[in-house]
């Protein structure tokens, strides 16, 4: 079975596989390319919200994730827009819709990732078989698991934090060091940033782990949204 980690980046999406027989990396610059990879792989861990509330401003999975990560990483967990605001044409309209229903506006950080949310949501609505293999996850939760259950003190935006995360990946995959260097050399920083690379790699690592280890979720018994999508953060 083929596994993949996917993270959003400035140019679109960075996709990485750490499978022994399928290792590689790809810059996906269109929705169609992402859809093709969704079809071609058997298990994908992706850092994008899947499953949206209708009326509640905060999903249970995001609330639990903040508790697990601790106060230093609260800002790394965004509340996605509620589904009624997802397809609003402007930030002002999305915020107004959210405010009328929840009493709170959409954050600018969440609005910035809304195009990615819409893209993935559209694929999962059009093809329900993808729901069994495209799993929402969160890189910082996975790095915490790699770090013995302890949060990494330095953020990934710092050189020390980035080195720590890359070091953890190098201990688990023979491809990590070469892929990090090669992606940096092949793509510009305005296409793929360094933290996008390590995030996609840790998602890829845990996607591979999920084939022969128990997949767990936050929350343990996740609800589904109005369209049947599970609202959960996956890890092993």
Description:
It is a single chain. With 236 residues, the protein is of the alpha/beta class. It has one domain (1-80, 116-236). The protein is built from nine helices and seven strands. The protein has helices at 31-40, 60-69, 83-86, 91-102, 108-126, 139-146, 159-172, 176-186, 194-209, and strands at 3-9, 12-17, 24-28, 43-46, 134-136, 216-218, 233-235. Strands 3-2-1-4-5 form a five-stranded mixed beta sheet. The longest helix is centred in the middle third of the chain and has 19 residues, at 108-126. It starts with a strand and ends with a strand. Pfam families: DUF429. InterPro entries: DUF429.
Q: Quick recap of the structure?
A:
The protein is of the alpha/beta class and 236 residues long. The chain is built from nine helices and seven strands, in the order βββαβααααβααααββ. The strands form two sheets. It has a five-stranded mixed beta sheet with strand order 3-2-1-4-5.
């Amino acid at each position: 079975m083929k596994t993949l980690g996917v993270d959003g980046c400035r140019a679109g999406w960075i996709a990485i596989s750490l499978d022994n027989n399928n290792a590689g990396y790809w810059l996906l610059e269109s929705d169609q390319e992402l859809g093709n990879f969704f079809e071609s792989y058997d298990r994908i861990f992706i850092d994008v919200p899947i499953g949206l509330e209708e009326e509640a401003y905060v999903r249970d999975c995001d609330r639990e994730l903040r508790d697990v990560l601790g106060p230093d990483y609260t800002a790394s967990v965004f509340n996605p827009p509620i589904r009624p605001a997802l397809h609003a044409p402007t930030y002002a309209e999305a915020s107004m819709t959210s405010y009328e229903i929840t009493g709170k506006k959409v954050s600018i950080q969440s609005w910035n990732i809304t195009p990615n949310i819409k893209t993935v949501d559209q694929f999962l609505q059009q093809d329900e078989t993808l729901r069994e293999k495209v799993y929402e996850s969160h890189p910082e939760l996975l790095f915490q698991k790699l770090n013995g259950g302890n949060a990494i003190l330095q953020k990934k935006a710092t050189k020390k934090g980035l080195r720590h995360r890359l070091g953890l990946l190098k201990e688990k995959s023979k491809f990590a060091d070469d892929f990090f260097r090669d992606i940096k050399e092949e793509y510009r920083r305005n296409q793929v940033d360094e933290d996008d690379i390590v995030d996609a790699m840790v998602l890829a690592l845990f996607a591979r782990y999920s084939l022969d280890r128990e997949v767990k979720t936050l929350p343990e018994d996740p609800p589904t949204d109005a369209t049947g999508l599970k609202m959960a953060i996956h890890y092993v």
